[in-house]
């Protein structure tokens, strides 16, 4: 075994699982599948070029790192705004723009944030999702 590969495999095994967990990329039908299973879904409508989206992502990642329960109990789904802005999900939820965060459970929307990067506001939305999970 190559030394680098050996060291990397040992490092990966030593790191907590939550470091490697990531949001799921949206595909049509994915949200409905998770909601039908009873999951609490946290949608992040984002674009790769959006600076507000990048700021939200940094806050989300910090909050997830601080509280592993977020990732263990909430299903995070990234929705690419450029690809899915005209999708039935986006239209049905009346998503006004990228940098929109939405929490869903069952057939209800529990909360949403549009273009907000304040960690306290985002944490409140994540706590809403966690309490519903």
Describe the secondary-structure layout.
Elements lengths: L2 H12 L2 H4 L3 E2 L4 H7 L3 E7 L4 H16 L2 H5 E7 H4 L3 H5 L7 E6 L2 E7 L4 H14 L1
Parallel strand pairs: 1-3, 2-3
Antiparallel strand pairs: 2-4, 4-5
Keywords: Signal
Pfam family, one: Thioredoxin
Protein name: Thioredoxin
> What structural class do you assign from the helix and strand content?
alpha/beta
The CATH top-level class label: Alpha Beta
Determine Rg (CA atoms, Å): 16 Å
Q: Please estimate the helix content.
A: 40-55%
- Look at the structure and give the mean pLDDT: 87
Task: Give a short account of the largest sheet.
Answer: 5 strands, mixed
Strand order of the largest sheet: 1-3-2-4-5
Would you report the number of β strands? 5
- Which architecture does the CATH hierarchy give at level 2? 3-Layer(aba) Sandwich
Euclidean distance between termini CA atoms: 43 Å
Q: Supply the number of structural domains.
A: 1
Portion in strands? 15-25%
CATH superfamily: Glutaredoxin
The number of helical segments is 8
What is the overall silhouette?
Answer: globular
Task: Outline the low-pLDDT stretches.
Answer: 1-20
Please explain how this structure is put together.
This protein is an alpha/beta fold and 133 residues long. It has one domain: Glutaredoxin (3-Layer(aba) Sandwich). 50% of the residues lie in helices and 22% in strands. It has 8 helices and 5 strands; from the N terminus they run ααβαβααβααββα. It has a 5-stranded mixed β-sheet, sandwiched between helices. Strand 4 and strand 5 form a beta hairpin. The longest helix has 16 residues. The N terminus is likely disordered. Keywords: Signal. InterPro entries: Thioredoxin-like_sf, Thioredoxin_domain. It comes from Pseudoprimorskyibacter insulae. It holds the Pfam family Thioredoxin. This is Thioredoxin.
């Amino acid at each position: 075994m190559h030394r680098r590969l050996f060291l990397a495999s040992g490092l990966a095994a030593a790191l907590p699982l939550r470091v490697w967990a990531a949001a799921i990329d949206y595909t049509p039908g994915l949200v409905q599948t998770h909601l039908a299973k009873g999951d609490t879904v946290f949608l992040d409508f984002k674009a790769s070029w959006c600076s507000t989206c990048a700021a939200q992502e940094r806050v989300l990642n910090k909050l997830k790192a601080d509280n592993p329960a977020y990732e263990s109990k909430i299903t995070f789904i990234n929705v690419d705004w450029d690809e899915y802005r005209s999708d039935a999900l986006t239209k049905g939820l009346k998503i006004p723009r990228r940098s929109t965060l939405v929490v869903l459970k069952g057939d209800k929307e529990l909360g949403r944030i549009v273009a907000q990067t304040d960690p306290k506001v985002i944490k409140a939305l994540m706590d809403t999702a966690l309490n519903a999970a």
